[in-house]
Every structure is written in structure tokens, then in C-alpha cells.
TrEMBL record, chains A, E:
Keywords for this protein: Iron, Metal-binding
Protein name as annotated: Hydrogenase maturation factor
Assigned protein family: Belongs to the HypD family.
Pfam families membership: HypD (PF01924)
Superkingdom, taxonomy of origin: Bacteria
Entry annotated with the keyword Metal-binding: yes
From TrEMBL, chains B, F:
Family the UniProt entry places it in: Belongs to the HupF/HypC family.
UniProt-recorded name of the protein: HypC/HybG/HupF family hydrogenase formation chaperone
UniProtKB/TrEMBL annotation, chains C, D:
Originating organism: Bradyrhizobium aeschynomenes
Domain PurM-like C-terminal: start-end pairs: 171-323
Protein name in the entry: Hydrogenase expression/formation protein HypE
Transmembrane segment boundaries: none
Gene3D superfamilies per the UniProt record, alphabetical: PurM-like C-terminal domain (3.90.650.10), PurM-like, N-terminal domain (3.30.1330.10)
Family: Belongs to the HypE family.
Chain ranges of the PurM-like N-terminal domain: 48-158
UniProt cross-references to NCBIfam families, sorted A to Z: hypE (TIGR02124)
């Protein structure tokens, strides 16, 4: 796969690993948060942890839009899907996300709700055209990456004058989440950020400037291939070593400073900021999510179906808030691997395979065991 | 997050659609979000939509840089 | 049977509830379509069971239900699959398959033409495997109470003397042999699923493996601990099952595991791991290290094992982890698939 | 398996697609529900097939799919039926049943509690019959693509030496023996069908007949030409099948055929003929006239043959008519059921 | 079963059979038409033919409302059931009745039409209540016996104000059919009629008076049990022997002279005569069927769905017209038992098990064989 | 035609409904078409509706007549 395989090269990885070992100052610890689940996945999938020095620790951030979707929004979607006239279209990742009391879309589907997995927003449009007597609702989730496809779909629905189509909007924004982590009450222990890859293809690198400038945190935008990650880590180490805190762009082949202007324009024309939005594991964050503009109210499922806002408290035993701030690790949670597993996730970090806890469970667990054996 | 992969545009279709190819797999996708698209372009594909074009120059430079970074240490390291 | 009936309209006709009601219409469907396709002396006798001679020894029995959607896919259909899959579960014991039974559950409205294609594929697959479908059953259910047709096949086979393969028999140090590339069946199926449609040259690997198995048994004998076909849940599920049942771990080598580029690409497109994708013509064998080379050589000589590879080893591990050294140079766990295999966006 | 999972919520939980995907959820369902209910050493080994020893001789194999609606009915459920029905098809060859396989096709949303009742009934029926369900398979399909649960069982058994019962073996002059009253199963099922509901004390006759068969074989030996259980299509279908396969006719005596008054009444209510209604614990035997009395005596001594009767004889007839002398004094043909068994208004 | 078993007594049958043999004049032939399928069924089911003298021949009449329903009405019903919004409720007997070109409701159902078998008109009402978003249509068929239950249902639909319910009315009348047979162009060879049992519980015996009075045909109303039949045959023989032609009532335990007045009134209030109606095997007969009165037009499926009248010619090779007039027997038809069987019925007489051809196929065929052997 | 069987009324229900019994089978049916109905009455049941009551006197008389007709011949016949 061109533009992917080259960045998975083992020989180059060995070189980069050597460079990281050489550059990392053994006298200090480097704690970098990779914001994105895509980065988390790359770390786990390719076993990057094995190639980093012990004093370079990666902290898995909240960067999976599925994981951060709170139980209340899942409950709302289930209630919507249970309406007899509604067919709810969802991305497959959402099916197992827990609502309150063990509920999930997968279970709601099993119990009779009409829920369809779609691959693309365009599939939802096709479904609405094919089923004029049903109300097709698209469960829109995702960061800045996934919002433009929703915008394209809304334009198509308008053009086709679909009266049986609407959107349950849950799009969220990455910079406010980074801000929330940095502004956390308990001081966080993060020396720099691996910045989003595909979010940045849309919004560019500029929105991260404040974190470097105002918070003094180095940020390196990085692709999702393992060499991208390693190069970004090396760049972060160099910034730390140099005492710099800048926004750098490792993922230059796909990310520019100002992003995809067409996509940004489309999104701005269709969506506007919500005052507040609840994030699983992070709590309520101001101006961190989007809703449809009043001009598109007729396509807004929350209005069409007068959906009541549901808020469900996170499980207090879940350590996600601390894990997402770099203060704890999955194994520090007493529910990890017992009550909380990928089959029965409790907190945001276990929900998708890219959550910190799920990634550790799925790919990394054996290292705890190895460490225990070693000690 | 945001599963997305590089794909080559092999055919342009009406209504801002295109066929892309990934190592012997081809799929119809939307290119509505891309300003100017041409056959042979590589795009980043996400949920059936092309998000951005890949810049082949930058890609090559990044790889060169990667090589240099590894090689540099290899030379200096004992 | 001469029953004064119009011929089955195999071109335009379809199954209705009368074909499952135990009357003349059912008898005609069975005789005109299934017996025709499976054609053998046992079915011709028209009993509710069939008899066969056995020598003293050890036999195996297995069953699988087939609910694949779409029913027709690149490389086969539910009929060929229903033979291959059950033959393979017999073969995985090291046994030689002998006879199959077939139970059909058909949704009213299902076209005779499609049913015939399926039955013909079953007959062909059975003949190719040198076995016979000697007994069967047909039920028809109302529309909306099935999905075209479901087939459950059961099979029996005979074990070579002294062979006792079982998933609890792996020992640390054993080698793991894989007969070919992963994910072809699952990707071929998914490429035809509604809302997922993509184009690829990949066809299902669906095939009967008993002949390959016979060669392996000849080469490895009792040095073969166990064999298993990595179907639903893929190689990941299979290795974890064996780890659980044998109470040990595995260390696999990603580099050694063959995956076709188009399969890898489709998996990237859908956010799936090829190690979780189903196969229907592949097997994993755990073998004693002494016989590993001989068995692998026998595999690569067989057309269905041409791409066979030694992909890792069993290790002592109370945690029963299936670990893998990635081709990138790191290590990871290969876990079961969680939940259903869903395309992902992230 | 220790897999760090929450226990199955057998009270309120239900099957979802993850239980069919080959991952941990499926393994848990199989271990926690099916193995629990069927509990035997074969399943415990957790292989995709099971092995057993056989002596030299002749075996039989059969399969049936079970799609009964409602799933639970007076006198049993689909699980007990799936054991009895397949045991009976083995027994009808005169064979002793040994092992069953079970393939489950489950609709998502199906309650664990119901699945457990069904599996428990299967386990119980198997134990009562002295056999084991040694291998199985579980598939889950989307809502609206099945009807709760379908079960296909297959079975194998061993034949006593020299016995070769077959539907083509009836000869003119043979007697027809029926083991008990007709129509109980079908009427019990119909009494619970939506839109048909009526109340009756009738319960399904569903039962394993191999023990009765063993007594019959002991009494009649090779004088028994064939046996068959009159399931779908009832006695009428069975007699016509035999007539076709043996190329002869039958003369039955209506007076001799036991039908319970409530079954007769339900049939009058619905416009059905008890001879077309399904049975699941009855058998018809065609026997040489010399052994008829001995076999009938053996039947009536057995609890499942208490009401057994000699109901007629085989006659030479190129037209293969099944005739019946009515209890009113006239004669008629007993034909196959035409089409589906539908309640009639006229 | 009280009031049934007594009339199935073998000893009494022997007595009656003796009496019939004694009374039947060997010098002449008695050709009686039993109008009703119920009688046909009794003859076949109990083997009555074996108990009658050779010169007493029973001719099976058109008295099965399922059999006489023409292919065009079945086609209309199929077209209705194929409408996506419609659920068609039918009595089970209708499922296999052939429409044109091999079509049937059973096959239409297999191909996806929503068709439900009901046992009673009340089931259709329940279905309409349970499925407010679907159009429930009841396929009403039957003679005077079955019309009052349809009337009860229509009253219930009115009372419950069901807006999603309607009736496709195909109720037909027996006296006009008898009239059509008697007025047939080819002279018929019938010496008397066994008159309807359950039709007469509703309409009484009076409507048959003209056939006795004007046409000189003896009529004996008879129950459907075999002794009822034998007694009626004996009564007919006596009338013929005596040169009488009266309406006599053998089925006095359930039939009165004037019938069930309440039922007659209900039917009269809801239904009115059609000018013409097509009967399978008999052709178009004036004033032989009912439709809803204009006051009930809103419940009339033919109006609600603007159903086009479809007329399909009977198969010209089918001998039903002659068989129904007593001119031919099933074996005289060259399609009998080859192209035309109960699985693939072509004419009305093969459609239900009570048709002349079906009854002969199902219960009586062996006698042809016996006769052939004898001759 | 017109499948109908005798059934005994064993319980009266509201809305012109009743439970009838036939040899150990019971079923809820409509009696809306019957003028006056009482427990113990036998009715002719058709498609879930009672069509008419059975007159026990007439039933007995018919049977008597049947017997006589058969017996009469038995006596005269040789
Ligand atoms: S293991 Fe589960 S409960 Fe614990 S921190 Fe992770 S997600 Fe939260
Ligand atoms: S056999 Fe068929 S075609 Fe011939 S007269 Fe009878 S119904 Fe008509
Ligand atoms: Mg199996
Ligand atoms: Mg298998
Ligand atoms: Mg399989
Ligand atoms: Mg069967
Ligand atoms: Mg297997
Ligand atoms: Mg069978
Ligand atoms: Mg059977
Ligand atoms: Mg059965
Ligand atoms: Mg299996
Ligand atoms: Mg059988």
C-alpha cells in the first residue's frame, strides 16, 4: 500500500529507535500524550513500546470519538432507535459502546430496534431514498475528520429534499479536549503532545499553536504509521531537550498549516458550536461540540423527535479521568481486566480498541506479566 | 481515531464521485471535499470520503528525513 | 416416484410452504432437486436414515450450520461451503471423511434455480471430496423467518489408528504451521455485502482439506498434536482457543504469516485485522518440533498448502497469551475478536 | 475457560450478534449454556468434532431440522423434539442410537432463559435415551432472519447384525402395525398457534422410540420389513411413501386406528384429517404376517406401545393405492396431504 | 362428538343401505346431485358409494364456495395482497386456489405478498386493531353460511371505527347456482337434489321451493353426516318412486322453514345483490352474489383500492361445466390425474378436496381401477 | 362446503362471545347470530361463529326415523 508500507519499514525503524535512544536523556523522563486513538493503535499494533527507551512513556489520550461519547448520548440514541418509525444508521464502532446499565446499540438491535451499520454517510442517504416510509436517522459522531463527510451528506439530503432523513449530531472538537486536559485541576504530567493526524488534514496545524505558545507544550502533528510516530517522538524529544515548545508538522504529506479550506467552509456553514458537551471520562467541556445551525433545524433529529437530553454519571471507580491526564495507567484501575474488559467496557478507555485500557488489554497486557516476572 | 488510508484515484465519476484503488481493492468514494482532483492523485480516504490529497514531494522528503535521522545516529553511535 | 405432478419449474418456480408440508410437493422437491444433485445409492432408497458398513476403530462426528450472506460469493456458495466446512472439521481430527447429512431450512419464496445451484455445488463438492451426502431433511419456513436458505451439515469420518489430535495437546516448544494466506474467505464475502461493496480479485479459499491432512499425517504421524481450521474469529480465535485448552501461550511471527496484499488492503479499508477474518480452506497445525520440517514440506508439496509456513511456537505461559512479534520489530498480543466483526471508522 | 467475562445473565440476557462471531462471547455462550446442559466428556474437550470407538458392523446416520412454532408446546419444546425426532429416525432402521450432533441457528434477541430451557430439555432427552450430544455448532443471525431458534440434529447408531429395514421391503400380505394414537403432536402444536388457539388436554406424544424398537426387533427379528415414524404429513404420507417405494398398495382399517376423541374433535374443528396430522412418538411397522402377533404383543407390553394396533395389510397394487375401509362401512383412498396443512372452512 | 357420532353409526348404516337397495327400482337409474361439498366430502370420506346400488349415482354439485371462485377474483386478490400497504386475511382453503397462469395466494405469499390465514372473521378484526399502520383486507368468500360471520365482522369494524380495515366481498348465493344448472342449455340429467345443510340453517328450506314446484325436481335438505346423506338419498328415491317433487327436510335438528331470521336480517342490512357474478365452471350468473351496500362503501376493498375487475376464461379442456351438470364424470376429462391434480388444479372441481374431481382423486380413484379390473 | 360442527355452550362471555366444548376441546366463539343462548345449548359452529342451535327433540326424532327405516327393511327383506 503506497504511502503506508514505506512508513512501516523495519530497517528504518531500527535506525529511528537508535536515534531515539541516543537522543533521550537517561537522566530525565519523557511523558508524551498521543492525542489520537490512531496513534494508540499504531503503538499497540506494531509494538512500539518495545522499541522506546524505558524513560520515554506514551500516555494514551482521549482521541477516539467513540470512546468519549458519553453513556447519556448512547441512551438517547437507543431511545430513538426504539421508536417504531425510526431506522438508526450508525458506524460499526458504535454498536458496542455502553450506555447506562449495560445497554448498547448491539443489545438494543438484538431486542428489536432497527439499527443498521453503515460504512459511509452516503449509505444513509441511499437508505432514506429506498425507504420513504421510514424515518432514517444518521448517528453522526467523530472529530473534525468525520464532520465534513456528515456535511456532504446533509448537502445531499437537502438537494434530494429527503423528508424522512435527519441527523443525531455528536460531532466533537479536539482542541477544546486538549485544553480541558491542560486546564485540569490536578496538575498533569505531560511533556508534549503527538498531535492528531487526520483531524489536522482538515483543520491544519494552526489550531494547536496556543498549546505550544501559551501552555509551553511541544506539539508534533504526526501520521498514523509507526515510523510517523517514531519520528514525531524523536522530534518531541528534541524539542524537550532544546527547551523549545513549538507546533511541528511531521505529517506534511497530508497536513498543511491551514487545512482543507473547502471542508472547513462546509462545516462552518452547516454546524455551530454547542455551549457545553459532555465527554466520557473528561466531563462537560465548553464549546467542544457541534450542532446543526438553525437553518438546518429540519434535519436535526434532536428537534424532529424532541429528544430529551440524558446525562449519565461515569462509573466513579473508573480511572479514565486520571488515565486521560497521564496520572494513572490502566493497570492502576481495579476494574481493569475483571469487571471491565473489551466485552463489557465500563469506562471510555475500554470502549474502542483504541482506548488506553482496551489497547493495553488487547495488545499490551503481556508486558505487565513480563515486568512482574522480571521484578 | 479516524481510520483513514491512502488510496489512488483511478477514475472520476459524475456527482463528485470517484473510484479509488488500494492494492487491488477498488471502491467508489466521494471526492466532494477535494478542490481539484485528477486521476493518479493519492488521497486520504475516511468513511468513504477523500479528505485531502497526499503531496508526493512532502512524502518523499519525510522519508528522506527519516532515513537521515536513523542513519545519522548509526554513524555516530558506537 | 410417479406421482402425476407437473415437473418442478426449475427456471421460474420457487419454494412455497407446501414444499415443507410432508406431502407430494415435498417428495417431488427432494427427488427432483436434491437427489438429482447428490445422486447416490443411499438417497435413492428413500429412507429417513442411511446405513453403511464400518470397520472396528475410531470415528469422528461433527456438525456446522451455514448461514452465510450473501449465499453466492466469489469462489463458491453456501452449498460448497456446507460441504467444505464440515469435511474440514472432520479432517482437523486427522480423520478421513466418509458421509455427510444435510438439513435444509428454506424461506418460502426461495427460487428453485438458486436452490439447484446450491444443491449442485454441494453434490460437486462432495464428489470432489470422495464422500456422499447420504441423508437429509428439508423444512420450509414463512417469509421473514429465515434468510433464503440455511444448511446444517453433519459428517462422520474414520481416524487412522493411533491418531488422537485434540486442542488440549499442544506442548511448549511445538511449532505452529499455517497452510496458507489468511482472510481470503472473509474478504470475498464482505466485498459483496450490502453497504460495504468493494471490488477485488480475492475469492473465497473454501476447499476440502482432508487430502492435505492425509499427506500431513503421513509425514508427521503422531507428532501432530492438533489441527484446526481458522474459520469464524480467524487465526486469532483459533490460537486463543488452543492456548486456553492446552494451557500455554504462543509466540507468532507476523512476518511469517501470509496475507495477500488485496486482503490486507481490504482490512485497512474496513478497519479489520486479517487475523480476525474467517478462512474456509486453511488449517493450523501444532506439531512436535521434530516433525515440523517434514510436515511443512508435505504441506508445501500439496496444492492447498503451497504457501504453508511455520508461523511460531507454543510457549509455557500460565496467562495463555498469544503473542506476536510484529514485522515492524515490536511485540503485541493477538487477542480474540471483541464482539462482532464490524467495519470501523476509528 | 477463564476469560475475565461477566457471567451470562441467564435471567434477563439475550443473544446478540456477538454470540455468533467466533469470539469470547460465543465461547462463553457455548461453555456456559450448551456444555452445561449437555455435559459430557466429548464436549468438554472443546474440539470442532468428537471421536468415539466403533465395532465392526453396520451403522446408520440421519438428520432432521426442527423449526417448530411455537417453540414451547404442551408436552415438550423444540429441544426435546430435536432429540426425539432424530433418535427416532435412527431407531426406525432398527438401530440403537449412539451419538447426536446439534447445530443451532439463533435469531438475535432470543432470551438466554428460553435457550437454556431448550438446551436443558435436549440434555434431559439425550440422557433419558442413553445417548450423548457430542458435537455442536452455534450461529446467530439478525432479527427477522430466523424464528427464535432452529435446531438441526444429526445422529448415528449401530444396527443389530443382519437387520436391513427399508421402505422398499414391504411385501403383499405383510401386516401394518401402528404403535399408538394419531395426531397428538400436531394437535398440541396447533392448539397454541396464533389465530387458532383452542384449549385441550392433548399433549405432544414426542418421545424416543428406540427402546420400543429394540423390543420389537427382539420379538420380530428379520420378520420386520421396515419401520417409519409418521411425522410431517402423518400416517397418510408415511403409508403412501412406503407404497411408492415398495411398489404395492395397502388396505387399512379405520376402526383399528386409534385416535383420541379430543384429537378427532380438534381435527373436525379445523377441517383436518387425523391421518394427515404429525406425530412425534409413534411408529408404523410393516412386518411379515408370521411375526405380526409377536411384534404386536411386544409393542403393547411397552409403555410407548400400549395402544399399538394391527391396522391393515399390504396388498399387490400397481397403482400403489393406500385404501381404507371406513368405520362406517365404505371404502376410500388415503392420499397424501395436498399442499400445506391449513385450517379449512369448507 | 354428540350430534355427530350418532349419525355415523355403522349398524344403522347397514339398515339404511338395505332400505335403499330395497327401495331403488332396479329398472331405472337415480341420478341425484348433492349440491354441497360437505355432502361430497361425506360420500368420499365414509365411502358411501360402496353402500349404494349401482343404479343410484351421486353427482357432485358446485357447492364449494372455494371451488367456484373464478380465477379472475383470485388474480384480483393477489394484486391487492401485492400492494405494499395491504395485509390480506384469508381462510386457509383459499391459499391454493388457482388464479390465472398457475398463480395462487400460496405462491404470491411465497413471493412476498403479506397474506395471513385466519380461522375466523374475528381474527381479521384483531389483526386490524394490532396493526394500525397497515391496511387489513378480509377476503370474504362463502355461501349463505359464511356471509353472516362476515356481517358480524363488519358490524364490529364499524363499532370500533377501524379505518384500516376493509372487505373484498365474494359471497355467493346457492339458489341462483341451482337455477343456473337447471336452466343449462344442454339438458341436464338430474333426478333430484340433496339440498344444502348449513346454508339452510341460515336461509331455511323455503328458497328451494321453486326447484320442486317449477322444475319438478325433488329436493331433500340433508345434514353432512353419512347417515344424514343416506336418509336423504332414501327420501329422494321415495319421492322419485312416488312421482313427487317436494322440498323435504332431513336436517330438521338444525334447519327450519324460515332459517335464522337474525342472520338473514343482518345480511340484508349490510349486503345487496350484484347484477352478475362469475362462477368458476358455471360462467356468469345473474343476481348470484353479494356486495356491500352503499352505506358500507368505506369498508369495501374494491372501492377503497379501486380494484379493476379481472375476468379469466376457464381452461377450455376442463370438463367442469359438464361435470357440474351431471353430464360427465371426472374420469371423462382428459386432464384428470395428469395435468390436473390436487397439487396443480386446473378446474373448479379439483380446487378443494370437496370438488368432484378432487374428491374422486383423493378418495375414490381406486374404484376406477377396481372397475377396470372387474371388466 | 361450509365445514361446521356441533358444539356445546359451556360458558357465556360478554360481547356476544361464549366458550364452547367439543369432546374435550374448548374454544371461544361468537354467538352474535343466535337470538337466545344458554349454557348447555348445542350450536352449529362455523368459522368461529354459532350459526344456529340444535334442536334436541328433532335430533332424536331423526335418529328414531333412521332406525325405523333401516329396521323396516330388515324385517321385510329376506
Ligand atoms: S479499566 Fe475500565 S473502568 Fe478502569 S479505567 Fe479503564 S475504562 Fe475505566
Ligand atoms: S380434472 Fe381438472 S380440468 Fe378436468 S374437469 Fe376436473 S377440474 Fe376440470
Ligand atoms: Mg463442526
Ligand atoms: Mg467448522
Ligand atoms: Mg464454518
Ligand atoms: Mg426428515
Ligand atoms: Mg473448525
Ligand atoms: Mg431424518
Ligand atoms: Mg424425522
Ligand atoms: Mg420431525
Ligand atoms: Mg462449528
Ligand atoms: Mg422419520
Amino acid at each position: 500500500m503506497k504511502y503506508a508500507d514505506e512508513y512501516r519499514d523495519k530497517e528504518l525503524a531500527i535506525g529511528l529507535a537508535r536515534a531515539i535512544h541516543a537522543k533521550a536523556d537517561p537522566a530525565r523522563a519523557y511523558r508524551f500524550m498521543e492525542f489520537c486513538g490512531g496513534h494508540t493503535h499504531a503503538i499497540a499494533r506494531y509494538g512500539l513500546e518495545d522499541m522506546l527507551p524505558a524513560n520515554v512513556r506514551m500516555i494514551h489520550g482521549p482521541g477516539c470519538p467513540v470512546c468519549v461519547l458519553p453513556a447519556g448520548r448512547i441512551d438517547m440514541a437507543i431511545a430513538l432507535a426504539e421508536r417504531p418509525e425510526v431506522t438508526l444508521c450508525v458506524y460499526g464502532d458504535l454498536m458496542r459502546v455502553p450506555g447506562s446499565r449495560g445497554a448498547s446499540l448491539l443489545k438494543a438491535k438484538a431486542r428489536g430496534a432497527d439499527i443498521r451499520m453503515v460504512y459511509s454517510t452516503l449509505d444513509a442517504i441511499a437508505l432514506a431514498e429506498q425507504n420513504p416510509s421510514r424515518q432514517i436517522v444518521f448517528f453522526a459522531i467523530g472529530f473534525e475528520t468525520t464532520t465534513p463527510p456528515t456535511a456532504v451528506m446533509i448537502r445531499a439530503a437537502e438537494k434530494k429534499r429527503l423528508s424522512n432523513f435527519s441527523v443525531f449530531c455528536n460531532h466533537v472538537l479536539t482542541p477544546p479536549a486538549m485544553r480541558a486536559i491542560l486546564d485540569s485541576e490536578t496538575p498533569i504530567e505531560i511533556d508534549g503532545f503527538v498531535g492528531p493526524a487526520h483531524v489536522s488534514t482538515v483543520i491544519g496545524t494552526e489550531p494547536y499553536a496556543p498549546f505550544a505558545r501559551d501552555d509551553g507544550k511541544p506539539v508534533v502533528i504526526a501520521g498514523f504509521e509507526p515510523l510517523d510516530m517514531m519520528q514525531a517522538i524523536l522530534m518531541l524529544i528534541e524539542q524537550v531537550n532544546d527547551g523549545r515548545h513549538e507546533v511541528e508538522n511531521q505529517y506534511r504529506r497530508a497536513v498543511t498549516g491551514s487545512g482543507n479550506q473547502r471542508a472547513i467552509r462546509e462545516v462552518a456553514e452547516i454546524f455551530e458550536l454547542r455551549d457545553q458537551f459532555e465527554w466520557r471520562g473528561l466531563g462537560s467541556i465548553p464549546a467542544s461540540a457541534l450542532k446543526l445551525r438553525p437553518e438546518f433545524a429540519h434535519l436535526d433529529a434532536e428537534q424532529r423527535f424532541v429528544m430529551a437530553e440524558l446525562v449519565v454519571a461515569d462509573n466513579p471507580a473508573c480511572e479514565c479521568p486520571a488515565i486521560l491526564r497521564g496520572l494513572k495507567k490502566p493497570v492502576d484501575c481495579k476494574l481493569f481486566g475483571t469487571a471491565c474488559t473489551p466485552e463489557t467496557p465500563i469506562g471510555s478507555c475500554m470502549v474502542s480498541s483504541e482506548g488506553a485500557c482496551a489497547a493495553h488489554w488487547t495488545y499490551g497486557r503481556f508486558r505487565d506479566h513480563q515486568r512482574r516476572l522480571a521484578s | 481515531m479516524c481510520l483513514a488510508i491512502p488510496a489512488e484515484v483511478i477514475k472520476l465519476l459524475p456527482d463528485d464521485m470517484a473510484i479509488v484503488s488500494i492494492d487491488g481493492v477498488s471502491k467508489e468514494v466521494s471526492v466532494a471535499l477535494i478542490e481539484e482532483i485528477a486521476i493518479g492523485d493519492y488521497v486520504i480516504l475516511h468513511v468513504g470520503h477523500a479528505l485531502t490529497k497526499i503531496d508526493p514531494e512532502e512524502a518523499r522528503e519525510t522519508l528522506d528525513l527519516l532515513r537521515q535521522m536513523g542513519a545519522a545516529v548509526a554513524e555516530v553511535a558506537p | 416416484m410417479s406421482m402425476h405432478q407437473r415437473r418442478l419449474d426449475l427456471k421460474n418456480g420457487c419454494v412455497d410452504l407446501s414444499h415443507g408440508a410432508g406431502g407430494r410437493a415435498m417428495a417431488q422437491l427432494i427427488a427432483g432437486l436434491f437427489h438429482e444433485a447428490f445422486g447416490n445409492e443411499w438417497l435413492a432408497r428413500g429412507n429417513d436414515q442411511s446405513a453403511f458398513d464400518v470397520a472396528a476403530g475410531r470415528m469422528v462426528m461433527t456438525t456446522d450450520g451455514y448461514v452465510v450472506s450473501p449465499l453466492f460469493f466469489p469462489g463458491g456458495n453456501i452449498g460448497s461451503l456446507a460441504v467444505h466446512g464440515t469435511v474440514n472439521d472432520i479432517a482437523m481430527a486427522g480423520a478421513r471423511p466418509l458421509y455427510l447429512s444435510a438439513s435444509f431450512i428454506i424461506e418460502e419464496g426461495f427460487a428453485f434455480a438458486d436452490l439447484k445451484r446450491i444443491a449442485d455445488a454441494m453434490g460437486e463438492a462432495a464428489r470432489a471430496a470422495g464422500i456422499a451426502i447420504i441423508t437429509g431433511d428439508t423444512k420450509v419456513v414463512e417469509r421473514g423467518k429465515a434468510d433464503g436458505v440455511f444448511i446444517s451439515t453433519a459428517g462422520v469420518g474414520v481416524l487412522p489408528e493411533g491418531l488422537d489430535l485434540s486442542a488440549d495437546k499442544a506442548r511448549p516448544g511445538d511449532r505452529v504451521l499455517l497452510s496458507g494466506s489468511l482472510g481470503d474467505h472473509g474478504v470475498a464475502i464482505m466485498s459483496k455485502r450490502q453497504n460495504l461493496t468493494f471490488d477485488t480479485e480475492i475469492v473465497s479459499d473454501s476447499a476440502s482439506l482432508h487430502d492435505l491432512v492425509a499427506d500431513m499425517v503421513a509425514a508427521g504421524g503422531q507428532g501432530i498434536r492438533l489441527m484446526r481450521d481458522p474459520t469464524r474469529g480467524g487465526l486469532a480465535a483459533t490460537m486463543n482457543e488452543i492456548a486456553q485448552q492446552s494451557n500455554l501461550g504462543f509466540r507468532l511471527l507476523e512476518e511469517a504469516i501470509p496475507v495477500k496484499p488485496a486482503v490486507a488492503a481490504a482490512c485497512e479499508l474496513l478497519g479489520l485485522d486479517p487475523l480476525h477474518v474467517a478462512n474456509e480452506g486453511k488449517l493450523v497445525a501444532v506439531v512436535a518440533p521434530e516433525v515440523a520440517d517434514a510436515v511443512l514440506a508435505a504441506m508445501t508439496r500439496h496444492p492447498l498448502g503451497r504457501d504453508a509456513a511455520d508461523i511460531g511456537e507454543a510457549v509455557a505461559d500460565d496467562h495463555r497469551f498469544v503473542q506476536m512479534a510484529t514485522s515492524f520489530g515490536g511485540g503485541r498480543i493477538v487477542d480474540w475478536l471483541s464482539g462482532e466483526q464490524l467495519p470501523r471508522i476509528c
